[in-house]
């Protein structure tokens, strides 16, 4: 599949161990695709730490060779690039889609034996591009790099960003932008929408092959389970419950939770209009196109359940030959979701408050704090950070009688565990981030990179985000902790 592209030798020298398991699936699920030629590839950023984890040595080749590799101008041996087919409910409306601007190079075997997808984003048109150009601009690809690596730093399951290469070609959006290609690494790119696509084909053998592939990759222990497809649905639902709880714990708003943007592996995927909440408000929305607030912070668990219902519908023919029984089996799993989510959410919120045991009134204790935060427009991250700062006097906003009443209850609750607030603080600092990617700091890093070709601002931000639970007073940390002075009207954008 090297086609008109150059030799593969340079690519292999970095240490790829490629397979193409996806290409062995039924052919309607993908189309062979070749990355476009680019004018002058130049690496904007390389993730050397991730490369090491993957068993890759990017220092083994010249910068030009590495840039050519991550621009898709040379291929690893054994790579058979494809665009994956998938469908999706976008803001509730069903559409047949597919990788319109992404190309899967194949799967790489890491030194620890894990199989990971390696995918380009922004590498040119495919059969699924519809009216789009298949390209991506440098800013949005660097944005995905920053936010995905921030989630990884926080310990939240996510696709990873291995490289961003500027292509040297222009991309036309509202204005002319610099083109770029992101290399994304994922447990897989199987989406709820992949199952919707297979189901829409109306061919049960394709659907079954896809489900077997997903089970083999993500839930191999289910292979011999007589109810493997039902338990697979349960496993996907459980991963989503855990994932969305983690988002809620740090104030992450995905922004476009369409079914094509929900990964079967339970990783956060497709960083478009996502952003972190500052002042606590359950209705927070940043995405410019989400006018109804469908994907607002507080709606994320409910939307996950809605998306899982779409997955369940696709699996019905595999669950039972009796349609009524299939529906009742799937419904049982879906109905478990709110309680599963609440379990994960409450367990994490307890830790955020330094609590290690469970008491009946804990949910009310958490809710009371959240209500106070909303009323006083308190910064979500910094409130938990302040509560985690052992011995540090709390500032003026915390003199509010409502807060003090809550604090008394909290201290009493800690006392019942036999621990002082100071002891609790040590635990709290392991789960409450001292730093998150604040929107104004992300924008600042992106404009320095895009407008002035200055990557230093971005590197400093990434360094802070790599160890978000590090409370050691570092001179540079304070500027990443300040919320923006006024964020009304801050808007994020999709697919640019
Ligand atoms: P997203 O909103 O990024 O999840 O993308 C939704 C769908 O639109 C996916 O099928 C993408 O592949 C496709 N898409 C987004 N941007 C482009 C583009 N510039 N050219 C072609 N397809 C695109
Ligand atoms: Mg997407």
Provide a short characterization of the protein structure.
The protein has 496 residues and is of the alpha+beta class. 42% of the residues lie in helices and 13% in strands. It contains 16 helices and 12 strands.
Please specify the SSE layout and strand pairing:
Blueprint: H1 9-12, E1 18-19, E2 30-32, E3 42-46, H2 48-53, H3 63-69, E4 82-84, E5 87-90, E6 93-96, E7 102-109, E8 115-121, H4 138-154, E9 160-172, E10 176-186, H5 192-201, H6 204-218, H7 228-250, E11 252-253, E12 275-276, H8 300-319, H9 323-352, H10 362-375, H11 380-388, H12 401-416, H13 421-428, H14 439-452, H15 456-466, H16 478-481
Antiparallel strand pairs: 1-7, 2-4, 3-9, 5-6, 7-8, 8-10, 9-10, 11-12
Bound molecules: adenosine monophosphate and magnesium ion.
Describe this entry's structure for a reader:
It is a single chain. This protein is an alpha+beta fold and 496 residues long. Among the domains are: 4-190, no CATH class; 353-387 and 389-428, no CATH class. Helix content is 42%, strand content 13%. Strands 1-7-8-10-9-3 form a 6-stranded antiparallel beta sheet, with helices on both faces. Strands 2-4 form a two-stranded antiparallel sheet. Helix 7 packs antiparallel against helix 8 (300-319). Magnesium ion (MG) is lined by residues 260-261, 270.
